[in-house]
Design goal:
Number of domains: 1
CATH architecture: 3-Layer(aba) Sandwich
Helix content: 40-55%
Strand order of the largest sheet: 3-2-1-4
Order of helices and strands: HEHEHEHE
Structural class: alpha/beta
CATH class: Alpha Beta
Distance between the termini: 6 Å
Largest sheet: 4 strands, parallel
CATH topology: Rossmann fold
Number of helices: 4
Length: about 110
Amino acid sequence: MYYWWYSLRYLEGKMMERKYKMLIVVTTYNQLATTRKVMEHLQELDHDILVIDDGSTDGTPEYLAQIKVEAHCKGEHKGRVDSWEWAYQYFKCAKEYTNIVLVSPGECLI
């Protein structure tokens, strides 16, 4: 049921053993309900979270502003691959991270 969550918890444990710093990137597009559930779980972790909203019109950008998470809200829908590319560029520029994990709420089992 929460396969992705347990996998992330396992990865977190392995990374903490080695003192790695992980960036968790959530990409979303018009998935407000699912994004809320995913964010509830991810905020329990002790890692930085970046949310990339791909031009949602369902209230996702407003929700992200309420929970005070680092978010990049694109003005128009350009697709998941564009969001992943943006995340990768962010990761490359932020030198403090050693690993990146991409999460797409629409593909998570909740």
